C-alpha cells in the first residue's frame, strides 16, 4: 500500500508544491497620471518564497504539507524591463478628441527564475516533471490614451483607457512544474484613474478585465488549465508625499476569475508503474487514510484479494474538469525615493490577505494492464491543485524592488 | 483566441512602432507633413527657431490693434499650444485677436530640453517679427508689447531682456512659475544631453546669480510674478523653494497661498482665475500713445538730459540697473570715473529709451590701445565655465553679451566671471573713460560632453600611443 500512498501524496504534493501564482501588485505611485511626454524605462525585480497557497475553499495551506515536512517552497524571482512611451501622435491635428489626449504605449519583457526546493523538487521527479524553469517570460504590450485632466478644488484627476496584449513568447515546457511563459494569449482592457489631492495624496486605481485565450498544450501533466477563465480585477493605491523625495504608499488588489477554469488534458501520473497492489490495498478495510489523501472509492477488497492482480496501473481521465474559479486579495505597502529628476527607487511588499486557488477532482482509473483496456472498478478521485499563474494563488508575501529611470532627464 | 495571434500581433507591433517613433520622423517617412499649430494671420511669416531651425509654430491674430500686443512665451518641453486656453479665455474677455500671440521656440518634447541661453536668439526673432508685422499691418510703429512667460519662459525672457537690452520694448512682463532662484529638479552636476537647462537653473547656480545681479527688475518694464507659494501646488517648487519665482521689485502674487487654491505648475497661468487676475494687472498699465516716438538720453559733458524735455531719466551706477522705482529726474550730472546706466521714459507717451551706459569723457592720456582677454580660450568643454575677462587697463569697463551679438551700449557690465552653461558665443568689449575702445572679443564655447567624447574616441582610434589627456570630471552625476 505504500506505493499507492506515495502516488497519492505525490500527486497532491506536486499540485500544491508547484503552484506558481501569478504575481499581482497594486498600481505604483502615479502609474496612471498624465506624465510628461517622453520615454521612460523601468526595471523591476520581484522575489517571493511561496510557502503557502490557497485551496479552493479559501483556506491557506502550507506547501506540500502533510506529504512533506513544512519548510520547502517555490522560490521565484521575476525581473521585468519596461519601456514606456508617452506622446501625442495627433497633436495639432484636426482630430480634436485625440489631439487633446496624449497616447502611450508600453512594452514589458520578463525573465524569471523559478525553482522548487527540497522534497518538493524531489517529488516532482516522481512524475517525470522538471521541478523548475528559468528563462524568458511572456511579452506584454499595451497602448492607451489619457483622458483630460479635471480639477475639483484641491483635487485633480484624470482617467485613462488602455489595452494590454500578453504575447506568449516565454519559455514554456509542457513537462515543467513551473514555467516562465504561459502559452496562452491574453487581452486586457482596463479603465484607470489618477487623482491628486492637496498636492500630497496620490491615488491610482484601475478596473481591468483579462480575456484569456486557450492553452492547447497544458504543462505539468495537464494541471494547467486548457480553458482559462477570464479574470477581472480592481486595484487601488494611495500614496502620501512627505517631500519631493519621499513617498509612502499602501494598496489593495482584488482579482477573481469569471467562471471556472477548465482542464481537459489531464495526464499527470506516477512515472514508475505498475504499482504494487500492496500500496492500494493496505487501507481498504476502512479507507480512512485513503480518503484523507484525496481518493474517494478505493480499490475493492475482491481486487486486493485476487491472486490474478499482482500489479496495477493508474491512469487519469483527461477531463474535462472545472474548478471553482480563483480569487486573490492582497495588500501592499511600499516606500519610494525620488533621486534627482531622473530616478525613482522603490521597495514594496505585498501580503496576500485572502484567496481561492484552483482545485479539481481528477478521476484515476485503476487498471490491471498498462493500456487500461479494463478497469478494476470505480475510478479513484484525487483533488489536485491547478498550477501556474492562471490557477494557483499564493498566500505568501512578495518583495518588489523597482527602479524607474528617465533616460532624457538631466 | 487562436485567431488572435496574427492580427493582434501585427496590430500591436504596428502600434508600438508608431508609438515609439517620433511623428516628425514617422509621418514624413510616409509622405505626410507633421501637423503643427500654425494659426497665423495672412501676411505673417513665423521666424525660424534658432534651436530647431524650423519655422516656429504658434498663433497670432489679425485686425486692428487696439492695445499693446501680448506675446506668450512657453516653458520647457512644450510649445505655443500651451497657451491656447489663455487665448480662448482672453478672447472671451474682449482682448482683440490681433493682440494675442504665441510662438514655439523649442523642441516640444523631452528628447531635447530647451534652455534659456539657447533660446534667447529665438525670442529675439519672435519679438522682432511680431512687432514688425503689427507695425506693417497697422501703419505705425508698434514699439512695445507685453510678455507673459511660464516656467523656463520666465528666465528666458529675463535673459533676453538683459542680453539684448530690450526692456524698453516690454511694457509689462508676467513671469509665472519661473525658477528665478532655482528649481529643485536641476542639479549642478547633471550629465546627458539635456543638462544645459540644469546648469542654468540649479539652486545656487552662477547663471542665476548672473541673471539677478544688479537688480531683478531692471528697466521701465512692469513686473508681475505669479506662482504657487504653498510648496505643494507646484511640484517644481516644494517647501524651501516656495518663493523661488518671486522677484525683488515685482508685484509678487503667490496665487495659491493668497487665494487658497491648488493650481499646479501647468495650470497656474492658464486657468480663468489667474488669467483674470493677470489681465486686470496688465490693464492697469497705461497704453502708449500710438503715434509717439520713444524718448532719448542725451549727453552733454557731464550732464545727461532726456529728449523731449518732458521725459524723465532713471539712472543707476556701477552695475546696478535703473528701474521704474528709481528717481525720475529731469537731468543728471555725472561724477567722473563713474559709469551711469540710464534710460529715459516719457510720462505721457509711456514709451522709454533703451538703457545706456554713460560716463564723463576724460582727455586722452596717450596710453596704448585697449585690449581685452579671457581666462578660458574658445573651444569645447565638458562642464560649464566661468570665464574671467580682463582689460589691459584695469580701470576700463567691460560689457559683454552672450546673445551672440556685439554688446550694445546697454549690455551687462562685467563684474564677475561670466558663467557659460551652454554652447554659445560670448562677445565682450572694453572701453575706458579716455575714449579708448577695445576690439570686440568673440569667443565660441561649446559645452558639449558628446563632442568631447567623440574627440576622445577619435584620438584613441588614430593615436593609440598618445598619452590620454582626458581629465574630465566624472565623479558626480551621470
Total helix count of chain B? 10
Helix vs. strand class of chain B: alpha/beta
Q: Sum up the overall morphology of chain A in one term.
A: elongated
The quaternary structure here is heterodimer
Distance between the termini of chain B: 46 Å
Name the pair of protein chains with the most residues at their interface, and give those residue counts: A-B, 45 and 51 residues
End-to-end distance of chain A, in Å?
70 Å
Low-confidence stretches of chain B: 472-478
Low-confidence stretches of chain A: 1-21, 283-298
Largest sheet of chain B: 8 strands, mixed
Helix percent band of chain A = 10-25%
- Overall pLDDT of chain B, averaged? 89
Shape of chain B: globular
Mean pLDDT score of chain A, rounded?
83
The percent of residues in helical segments of chain B reads 10-25%
Q: Please give the order of strands in the largest beta sheet of chain A.
A: 1-4-5-6-7-8-9-10-11-15-16-19
Produce a short descriptive summary.
Chain A is 11% helix and 46% strand. Chain A has helices spanning 2-17, 96-99, 118-126, 277-281, 288-293, 301-305, and strands at residues 38-50, 52-54, 60-62, 74-87, 103-116, 132-152, 155-167, 186-197, 201-212, 230-241, 246-258, 262-263, 313-316, 321-322, 327-339, 343-356, 359-367, 380-385, 398-405.
3D architecture notes:
The complex is a heterodimer of chains A (410) and B (478). Chain A is mainly beta and 410 residues long. Helices cover 11% and strands 46% of the residues of chain A. Chain A has helices at residues 2-17, 96-99, 118-126, 277-281, 288-293, 301-305, and strands spanning 38-50, 52-54, 60-62, 74-87, 103-116, 132-152, 155-167, 186-197, 201-212, 230-241, 246-258, 262-263, 313-316, 321-322, 327-339, 343-356, 359-367, 380-385, 398-405. In chain A, the strands form 4 sheets. A 12-stranded antiparallel barrel of chain A has the order 1-4-5-6-7-8-9-10-11-15-16-19. A 3-stranded antiparallel beta sheet of chain A has the order 13-17-18, with helices on one face. Chain A has a two-stranded antiparallel sheet with strand order 2-3. Residues 1-21 and 283-298 of chain A have low confidence and may be disordered. With 478 residues, chain B is of the alpha/beta class. Chain B has helices at residues 5-20, 23-29, 84-92, 116-138, 152-164, 195-201, 206-212, 255-259, 272-284, 449-462, and strands at 38-39, 58-59, 70-73, 100-103, 145-150, 170-176, 222-227, 251-254, 296-300, 303-307, 312-317, 332-333, 340-345, 356-358, 372-374, 379-381, 385-387, 389-391, 397-401, 418-420, 424-431, 441-447. In chain B, helix 4 crosses helix 5 (152-164). Chain B is globular and about 85 Å long. Residues 472-478 of chain B have low confidence and may be disordered. The interface between A and B is large, with 45 and 51 residues.
Amino acid at each position: 500500500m505504500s506505493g499507492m500512498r506515495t502516488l497519492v501524496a505525490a500527486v497532491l504534493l506536486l499540485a500544491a508544491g508547484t503552484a506558481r501564482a501569478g504575481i499581482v501588485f497594486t498600481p505604483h505611485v502615479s502609474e496612471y497620471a498624465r506624465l510628461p511626454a517622453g520615454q521612460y524605462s523601468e526595471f523591476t525585480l520581484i522575489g517571493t518564497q511561496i510557502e503557502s497557497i490557497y485551496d479552493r475553499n479559501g483556506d491557506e495551506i502550507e506547501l506540500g504539507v502533510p506529504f512533506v515536512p513544512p519548510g520547502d517552497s517555490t522560490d521565484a524571482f521575476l525581473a521585468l524591463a519596461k519601456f514606456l512611451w508617452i506622446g501625442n501622435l495627433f497633436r495639432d491635428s484636426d482630430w480634436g478628441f485625440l489631439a487633446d489626449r496624449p497616447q502611450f504605449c508600453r512594452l514589458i519583457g520578463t525573465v524569471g527564475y523559478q525553482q522548487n526546493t527540497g522534497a518538493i523538487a524531489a517529488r516532482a521527479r516522481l512524475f517525470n516533471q522538471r521541478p523548475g524553469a528559468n528563462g524568458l517570460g511572456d511579452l506584454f504590450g499595451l497602448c492607451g490614451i489619457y483622458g483630460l485632466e479635471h480639477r475639483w478644488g484641491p483635487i485633480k484627476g484624470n482617467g485613462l483607457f488602455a489595452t494590454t496584449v500578453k504575447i506568449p513568447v516565454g519559455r514554456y515546457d509542457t513537462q515543467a512544474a513551473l514555467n516562465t511563459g504561459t502559452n496562452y494569449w491574453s487581452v486586457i482592457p482596463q479603465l484607470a484613474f489618477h487623482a491628486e489631492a492637496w498636492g500630497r495624496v496620490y491615488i491610482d486605481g484601475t478596473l481591468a478585465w483579462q480575456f484569456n485565450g486557450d492553452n492547447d498544450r497544458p504543462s505539468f501533466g495537464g494541471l494547467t488549465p486548457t480553458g482559462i477563465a477570464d479574470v477581472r480585477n480592481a486595484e487601488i493605491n494611495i500614496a502620501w508625499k512627505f517631500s519631493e523625495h519621499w513617498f509612502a504608499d499602501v494598496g489593495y488588489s482584488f482579482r477573481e476569475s469569471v467562471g471556472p477554469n477548465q482542464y481537459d488534458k489531464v495526464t499527470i501520473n506516477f512515472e514508475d508503474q505498475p504499482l504494487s497492489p500492496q500500496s492500494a490495498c493496505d487501507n481498504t478495510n476502512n479507507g480512512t487514510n485513503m480518503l484523507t489523501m484525496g481518493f474517494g472509492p478505493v480499490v475493492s477488497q475482491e481486487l486486493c484479494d485476487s491472486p490474478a492482480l499482482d500489479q496495477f496501473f493508474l491512469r487519469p481521465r483527461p477531463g474535462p474538469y472545472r474548478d471553482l474559479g480563483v480569487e486573490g486579495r492582497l495588500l501592499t505597502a511600499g516606500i519610494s525615493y525620488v533621486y534627482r529628476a531622473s530616478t525613482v527607487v522603490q521597495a514594496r511588499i505585498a501580503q496576500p490577505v485572502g484567496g481561492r486557488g484552483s482545485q479539481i477532482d481528477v478521476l484515476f482509473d485503476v487498471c490491471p494492464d498498462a493500456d487500461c483496456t479494463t478497469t478494476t472498478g470505480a475510478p479513484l478521485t484525487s483533488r489536485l491543485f491547478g498550477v501556474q499563474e492562471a490557477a494557483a494563488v499564493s498566500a505568501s508575501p512578495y518583495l518588489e524592488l523597482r527602479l524607474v529611470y528617465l533616460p532624457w532627464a538631466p | 483566441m487562436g485567431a488572435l495571434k496574427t492580427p493582434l500581433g501585427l496590430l500591436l507591433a504596428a502600434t508600438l512602432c508608431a508609438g515609439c517613433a517620433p511623428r516628425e520622423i514617422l509621418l514624413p517617412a510616409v509622405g505626410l507633413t507633421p501637423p503643427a499649430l500654425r494659426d497665423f494671420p495672412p501676411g505673417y511669416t513665423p521666424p525660424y527657431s534658432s534651436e530647431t531651425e524650423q519655422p516656429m509654430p504658434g498663433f497670432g491674430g489679425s485686425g486692428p490693434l487696439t492695445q499693446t500686443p501680448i506675446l506668450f512665451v512657453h516653458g520647457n518641453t512644450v510649445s505655443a499650444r500651451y497657451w491656447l486656453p489663455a487665448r480662448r479665455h482672453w478672447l472671451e474677455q474682449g482682448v482683440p485677436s490681433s493682440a494675442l500671440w504665441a510662438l514655439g521656440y523649442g523642441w516640444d518634447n523631452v528628447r531635447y530640453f530647451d534652455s534659456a541661453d539657447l533660446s534667447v536668439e529665438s525670442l529675439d526673432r519672435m519679438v522682432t517679427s511680431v512687432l514688425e508685422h503689427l507695425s506693417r499691418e497697422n501703419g505705425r510703429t508698434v514699439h512695445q508689447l507685453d510678455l507673459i512667460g511660464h516656467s523656463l519662459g520666465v528666465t528666458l525672457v529675463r535673459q533676453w531682456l538683459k542680453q539684448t537690452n530690450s526692456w524698453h520694448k516690454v511694457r509689462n512682463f508676467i513671469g509665472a512659475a519661473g525658477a528665478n532662484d532655482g528649481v529643485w529638479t536641476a542639479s549642478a552636476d547633471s550629465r546627458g544631453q539635456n543638462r544645459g537647462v540644469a546648469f542654468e537653473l540649479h539652486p545656487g547656480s552662477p547663471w542665476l546669480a548672473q541673471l539677478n545681479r544688479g537688480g531683478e527688475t531692471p528697466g521701465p518694464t512692469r513686473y508681475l510674478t505669479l506662482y504657487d507659494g504653498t510648496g505643494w501646488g507646484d511640484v517644481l517648487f516644494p517647501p524651501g523653494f516656495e518663493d523661488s519665482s518671486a522677484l525683488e521689485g515685482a508685484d509678487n502674487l503667490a496665487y495659491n497661498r493668497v487665494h487658497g487654491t491648488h493650481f499646479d505648475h501647468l495650470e497656474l497661468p492658464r486657468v480663468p482665475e489667474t488669467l483674470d487676475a493677470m489681465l486686470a494687472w496688465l490693464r492697469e498699465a497705461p497704453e502708449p500713445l500710438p503715434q509717439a516716438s520713444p524718448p532719448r538720453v542725451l549727453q552733454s559733458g557731464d550732464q545727461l538730459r532726456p529728449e523731449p524735455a518732458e521725459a524723465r531719466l532713471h539712472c543707476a551706477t556701477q552695475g546696478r540697473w535703473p528701474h521704474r522705482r528709481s528717481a525720475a529726474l529731469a537731468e543728471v550730472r555725472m561724477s567722473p570715473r563713474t559709469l551711469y546706466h540710464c534710460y529715459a521714459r516719457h510720462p505721457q507717451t509711456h514709451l522709454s529709451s533703451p538703457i545706456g551706459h554713460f560716463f564723463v569723457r576724460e582727455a586722452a592720456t596717450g596710453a596704448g590701445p585697449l585690449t581685452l582677454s579671457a581666462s578660458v580660450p574658445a573651444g569645447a568643454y565638458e562642464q560649464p565655465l566661468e570665464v574671467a575677462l580682463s582689460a589691459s587697463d584695469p580701470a576700463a569697463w567691460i560689457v559683454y553679451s552672450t546673445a551672440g551679438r556685439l554688446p550694445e551700449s546697454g549690455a551687462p557690465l562685467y563684474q564677475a566671471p561670466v558663467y557659460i552653461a551652454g554652447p554659445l558665443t560670448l562677445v565682450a568689449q572694453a572701453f575706458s573713460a579716455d575714449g579708448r575702445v577695445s576690439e570686440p572679443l568673440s569667443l565660441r564655447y561649446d559645452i558639449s560632453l558628446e563632442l568631447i567624447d567623440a574627440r576622445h574616441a577619435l584620438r584613441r582610434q588614430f593615436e593609440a600611443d598618445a598619452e590620454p589627456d582626458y581629465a574630465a570630471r566624472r565623479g558626480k552625476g551621470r
